Amino acid sequence: MKRLFWSAAITTALALPTAMAQTTPGGYTLQQVVIVSRHGIRAPLANNGSALAQATAKPWPTWKVTGGELTDRGALVEIFFAHQMRKWMTHEKVLSTEQCPTKKQFFAWANSLPRTHDTAQFFVSNTFIACDVPIFHQRKMGEMDPLFNPVITEDSDDFRQKAVAAMVTSRQHVDLKESYKLLEQIVNYPASPACKAKADEPCNLSDEKDTFRADYRLEPSVSGPLKTANALVDAFTLQYYEGFPQNEVAFGGIQSDKQWQLLEKLKNSYQAILFTTPQVARNVAKPLLNYLDQQLVEKPAAAPKVTLLVGHDSNIASLLAALEAKPWQLPGQFEQTPISGKVVFQRWHDSKSNRDLMKIEYLYFTAEQMRNVSKMGFDTPVQRYTLELTGCPTDSNGFCPMEKFSEVMREVAK
Fold first, then answer.
1. Looking at 39, 117, 137, 312, which residue is catalytic?
2. Active-site residue, 313 included
3. What does the pLDDT look like over 98-114, one tens digit per residue?
4. Fewer CB atoms inside 10 A, N or C side of the chain?
5. For residues 54-75, average pLDDT
6. CATH number of the domain at 8-46+70-152+281-412, out of 3.30.300.20, 3.90.180.10, 3.40.50.1240, 3.40.50.300?
């Protein structure tokens, strides 16, 4: 497993305490936190010998780590994240960093892939300085942990047909022609090996057909232009975050925010179509839904004060879709579920009214912050966006009655 190390100067700087700003009514006490995190910045999963090389004849820039591995910049972003969240949780007294945490105070669980484990390691070791806090993961690394594995668990033809039909309908409701046109221009798709293999046939992404699948024990999938587009835009996005020179990011073909929005529409649509239709979301998110139900609703008194779960964008997308989160757009981000972003479930107690409340926030850094990470510091504020569930309306401060949240969890986790 890849290991990354940082100087003692960073560890020393992280010890400086200040409070992370948040508006909280008087008499409110934070009792419990569950953090569902996406892993940090990684190298593209599709390497030069696969989908990326087939989609363009242009040479791809070289990464310092192999495909899928956490980068040094990804580690640094997690360090900044840990610092900010540590300040907030210490300020709210749900966590103490004056001593190393017990299992009752803090628990970390990461998917058993190097990038998720390394993300958790950097977050945890910089939340608890000089503490040996274990990170739970299944013994065999390199294989998906069932908690984070977004696979279809319903083995029936009826479910499969309904799931695929829902994906097809979702795809029909989104117009991607302008996005495909821009992508084809950037990669010069007509000159790509994929097009050349078709000889004299017309070759453009918008006219090609997508084929969706929802097979038992496999992730929802698509073959066709949407899969190709997702791999390409994912690579461009990671190049941008990683700080590649502007003329190397998307081969220098992106000049405006509007173009980024068009391209990210492809990637966001890929994720939404595969993982957020009602037929699929509840099914693939079931392990996480059940875990959250136990931690936050059924047995909160037995749960750790703070729990960290590190997985993938598919986990967050399907989880929030299953919970029927209202549509959101994170300011300063083009990704719907940005890399390194964290959905934070917070159980609060209002002593004045003697009631428990739930608040759900999306914590993240903007795309510009991650690209210009050298300009960031330990006091760079994390962006906060309050999420609202359809079945759990929030007040003006973003809080929902715990009994309403419990009703939502009982419905989706049953």
1. 39
2. yes
3. 789 999 999 999 999 99
4. C
5. 94
6. 3.40.50.1240
